[in-house]
Amino acid sequence: MNIVLLSGGSGKRLWPLSNDIRSKQFIKIFKKRDGSYESMVQRIYRQIRSVDENAKITIATSRAQVSSIHNQLGDQVGISVEPCRRDTFPAIALASVYLAEVEGVSQEESVVVCPVDPYVEEDYFRALKALERQADKEEANLILMGIQPAYPSEKYGYIIPADREAISKVLAFREKPDAKTAKEYIDHGGALWNGGVFAYKLKYILCKAHEMMDFRDYQDLLDRFETMPKISFDYAVVEKESSIQVMRFPGQWKDLGTWNTLTEAMEEECVGDGVMDDSCENVHIINELGLPVLAMGLKDVVISASPDGILVSDKHQSSYMKPLVDELDRQIMFAEKSWGSFRILDVGTESLTIKVTLNPGHRMNYHSHLNRDEVWVVIQGTGQAITDSVYREIGVGDIVTMKAGCRHTVTAYSELQLIEVQLGREISKNDKQKYPFD
Amino acid sequence: MNIVLLSGGSGKRLWPLSNDIRSKQFIKIFKKRDGSYESMVQRIYRQIRSVDENAKITIATSRAQVSSIHNQLGDQVGISVEPCRRDTFPAIALASVYLAEVEGVSQEESVVVCPVDPYVEEDYFRALKALERQADKEEANLILMGIQPAYPSEKYGYIIPADREAISKVLAFREKPDAKTAKEYIDHGGALWNGGVFAYKLKYILCKAHEMMDFRDYQDLLDRFETMPKISFDYAVVEKESSIQVMRFPGQWKDLGTWNTLTEAMEEECVGDGVMDDSCENVHIINELGLPVLAMGLKDVVISASPDGILVSDKHQSSYMKPLVDELDRQIMFAEKSWGSFRILDVGTESLTIKVTLNPGHRMNYHSHLNRDEVWVVIQGTGQAITDSVYREIGVGDIVTMKAGCRHTVTAYSELQLIEVQLGREISKNDKQKYPFD
Questions:
Q1: Which of A304, A322, A346 to mutate to test the interface with B (most CBs of B within 10 A)?
Q2: Cβ separation of B296 and A320 shorter than 8 Å?
Q3: Which residues in B219-349 belong to E strands, given as ranges?
Q4: If pLDDT is split at 50, 70 and 90, which confidence band does B13 have?
Q5: Measuring CA to CA, how many Å separate A98 from each of A292, B276, B307?
Q6: Phi and psi at residue B212, in whole multiples of 5°?
Q7: What span, in angstroms and rounded, lies between the C-alpha atoms of B128 and A422?
C-alpha cells in the first residue's frame, strides 16, 4: 500500500504541548502495552505497519516538522517536504510527484491519502486497504472514505451517497451544516462524515497536477512551490470531479484536534507527574514538567503543562484557545531536533542556559555564532567535540568553551547531555553560521 | 512599642508557594503602590513602622526562617530563634527573655504579641498601641485583643466578655464551636474572636517562665530548649489566669491560612505571568515560574505555580490539601538564603544544575563537598571567588571549577548570578563541610 499521511499545521488548540515547531501529532500521550508512551504519528505509523508491514509510507509535511519526524520515526520513513505552506492541493500534488519520481512508484499504482491525526483502531487501516483495492478497479477516479457519523456533528463536512450500499456513487457534498440539518442528512440521505481520506491512481493526480500547475518535474515543482496557488484539494479536485465513489467506514474514528477530544482518547487520567483528589471528576493532567501537579475539586478540566506554559481549562472552553495563545507568542522553550532535543532552563538578561540532549551516534551542525560565547558542561555520556578543527574526546565534568566566532559541534557516542550556557548581549536563534565538516 | 511577631510553621496549606523552608509569610503576593510585591512579613513590618517608627520589632521563629527574614527585612530586625519547635508558651517565654537580656528591655515595659500572618490595615496597629497602653496600666495581668466577628466562624476560639464595653473583664473562653453555638455566643454574650493577640508587662511573663521552666538565663534557656515542655500559651497561661481584660477590635482582620482566604486579600486576580479568558469567574493565578499560565472557563479556582509544583484547586477544596502535599514530599526546588537565593534548573542522574543569585556585598559560607565536583559559569555581575585559599576576581563568562574536597566561596560585588553544575554519584545537600575564612 502506498499511503500519504498529511501532517498539518501547528495545532495551537493543543497548546502548550503543541507550538510552532512541535505539532500536536508529536506529543507522546498514548500509553503503549509496555508502559511507555507514543505520539499520534508514532501510533498511526505502528498501526499501518501492523496491518501492512510493506506499506510505503510517505509523510507530507512542512520543513519545521522534519526533525521531529526523524526523531520519532527514524530515517526510513519517506518525507515529502513542502518548502512553504500552500494548502492541500499543492501538498498532495507534491507528494504524488515525489512518489512517482523519488520513490519510483508506478503511475498505475493506487495511493491512499489520510490525515495523520485521527484516533482509530486497526479496522480503519483494513478499510484503507479496501479503499486502495477499490481504486485499483478504476470504477471511479476518486474513492472517498465516508465515516458513519457517531452524532450529527457541526464540525465536519458531509458526503451524500446515492444509496446505502457499502460502496456507492457520491451525489453531493455539504460543508459543516447546523446540527438539525446534519441530522436530516443522516436520517434521510444516509450522509457520511468526510474525514479527508481518499484513494486514487497515481496517474490521475499527476495529470491533475500538470493541468493546474506549471512545472516540469519534482525538482522544478519544489523550486517553484512558492508560486503555486493556495487551493484546497476539495476545491481543486473533489468538487469538480464527477466520477467519485464513497466507501462506508462504520468503525471508530475520532478527530483529536482539541483537548476535549484528545483527552477522551487517553487511557489514563494523568500522563506525567500529577495527583488528583477524590473530588475531581473528568479531569485530565498532561504534565511534561519535572514538577508535580496537584488537582483538587475540579470538574471537566484539562491541565496541561510543558516548558512552553501551563493550560488550565474547562474542556469544552479549551476549543476557543487559539486567539489567546496567539497573544502569548513567546520563546519556544523545548524542541525536538533530528539529533535529539533541547530545553531552555533559564533566560537571563544577557545569558541563556539550555540543556542539550544528543542521541547516540548523532551530532549537531558544525556552526558558529557571531554575537555570543558558549560554554558546555558535560553532565552525562561521552562524545567528541570539535572546536575550530580541534578534535577532543569529552565525558562527564568536561568543559568546552567557545568564544564568538569559534566553529563547533559535538558527536554523541552514548546519550550525551550538556548544560550549555550562552553569553552575550544579542542572543538570537538566527545568529548561526553553518559550515561543512573540515 | 515592643512587639513580638510569632512567625509559625511551614503552612503546607499554601503549597506550592510554601514548603518546609519557605513559609507562607514570605510569599510576595501583595501589590504595593510602586507596583512591586511584598510578603506578609514585609507588609506587617512596614505597617508597624508606619504607625510607630521606633517600634522594637522581634520575630519569634525557628532556625529555618532566619535566612528568609534577613533576606526580606534586612539585618536590623530582632530575631528570637527557637532551637527547635516547642509550642507557643516556650516560644513566647524565650522571646520575652531575649527582650529582657539581649535587647535590654526593662521588665516594667509592656510587650505586645501577635501572629505574623493576619491581613489587617493600619487601625489594627493603632489598636496594638492601645493594647500596650492598657497593659501599662496594670489593671490586669494580660490584655487580649478581641476581634469583632465578621460571621459565626467555626475556625476560631471565642472570648466571652463580661460586658459590651470597649474594655471589659473576660468571663470565659470557648474553643471552636459549631456555627449555631458561635452565633449564640455572639448574639447573646457579645463574644469576640481570639486572634492570638495580647499584651503584658515583661515581668509578668518572665515570672511565669521561671515558675514553669527550669533555666538560669537566656543562654541557658537556649541550651535547654529541647527539654522544655511542649505546651501552648493558652493552656499554660491564659486559661489559668484570672486577671484578664479584653479590648474590642472592630476593624478588618483576616486570617490568611488557606488559598481561599489568601486570594480574598489579593488586590489582583493574577500575580506573575498569567492570562484568563472572559469566562473565568473568581479565579486567581499566582505564578512564580517563568512560563505563562492560561486559564479558561474556570470558576472559584486558584492556580498557583512555583518551582516546587503546580496547584490547581477549587478554592474551598484547597483547605484540605495538607495530606496530599505531605505525600508529594520531594526536593525543594527554590530557596531564599541570607545571601540571596537558589533555584534548581535540572535534576540529572548524576548531576544537578542550579541558578545561584548572590545579593551585592554578600557571600556564601566557605565550604567543600566530599562527593561532588562543581562548576560555576558566571552569567551576571562581578565578584570574588576563593578556591583553596586562592583569590580571583570573576565576571560574566568566567568559569570556576571545584573538584570534590576543594574549599570554595564567592562574594558578590554587584548582584552575581552563577549557573552551578554539580557532578557526582551522591549529590546531597548534607554533603557540606564549612570552614572559617583563612
A1: A346
A2: yes
A3: 244-249, 253-255, 270-271, 274-276, 284-287, 293-296, 301-306, 309-314, 334-337, 340-347
A4: confident
A5: 46, 45, 48
A6: -100, -15
A7: 53
Name the residue of chain A whose CA is nearest to B351's CA: A379
Length of chain B as a residue count: 438
Tell me how close the Cα of A126 comes to any Cα of chain B, in angstroms: 40
Q: Residues B86, B364, A356, CA angle at the centre, nearest 5°?
A: 110
What gap in Å lies between CA B434 and CA B324, rounded to an integer? 36
Cβ–Cβ < 8 Å for B221, B206: no
Distance CA A64, CA B313 (A): 37
Q: Over the stretch A217-276, which tens digit does the pLDDT of each residue have?
A: 999 999 999 999 899 999 899 988 999 999 999 999 988 888 988 898 888 899 989 999
A-chain residues near B423 (CB < 8 A) = 379, 396-397
The stretches of B224-318 forming alpha helices (DSSP H) are 233-236, 259-264
Q: Which three cell numbers stand for residue A168?
A: 456507492
Nearest CA in chain A to B332: A291
Cα separation, A295 vs B16, in Å, equals 12
Task: Nearest by CB to B309, from A292, A320, A350: name it.
Answer: A292
Q: Which of B280, B296, B299 to mutate to test the interface with A (most CBs of A within 10 A)?
A: B296
Residue reference for cell 489594627: B124
How far apart are the CA of B342 and the nearest CA of chain A, in angstroms? 12
* In contact, A395 and B373? CB cutoff 8 Å: no
- Answer yes or no: are the C-beta atoms of A28 and A38 closer than 8 Å: yes
> Position of cell 527574614?
B69
Taking alpha carbons only, the member of A414, A411, A82, A74 closest to residue A225 is A82
Residue A314 has its nearest CB partner, among B296, B318, B347, at B296
On average, the pLDDT of chain A sits at 91
Please spell the DSSP secondary structure of B172-223, one letter per residue: EEE-S--HHHHHHHHHHH--EEEEEEEEEEHHHHHHHHHHHS--SSHHHHHH
Give the helix/strand (H/E) hosting A218.
helix A218-223
Q: Is the pLDDT of residue A4 over 70?
A: yes
Say which of A292, A293, A317 has its CB closest to residue B297: A317
DSSP string, B3-72: EEEE-----GGGTTT--SSS-GGG---EE-TTS-EE-HHHHHHHHHHHH-TT-EEEEEEEGGGHHHHHHH
Distance (Å, whole) CA B367 – CA B204: 45
Cα nearest neighbour of B284 on chain A: A312
Whether B346 sits inside 8 A of A330 (CB atoms) is no
Residue A334 to residue A353: CA distance in whole angstroms: 12
Instruction: Please answer yes or no on whether B346 and A355 come within 8 Å at the CB atom.
Output: yes
DSSP character string of B117-157: -EEE-HHHHHHHHHHHHHHHTTSSSEEEEEEPPSS--SSSE
Q: Do B296 and A316 touch (CB under 8 A)?
A: no
* CB atoms B350 and A379 under 8 Å: yes
Spell out a b/e string for B257-267, using b for 16 or more CB atoms within 10 Å of the CB, else e.
bbbbbbbebbe
Return the H-helix or E-strand segment holding B325: helix B322-328
Write the ipTM.
Answer: 0.74
Crossing angle of helices B122-136 and B40-51, in 10° steps, is: 60
Q: What's the CA gap between B88 and B86, in Å, rounded?
A: 7
Cell 565536583 sits at which residue? B373
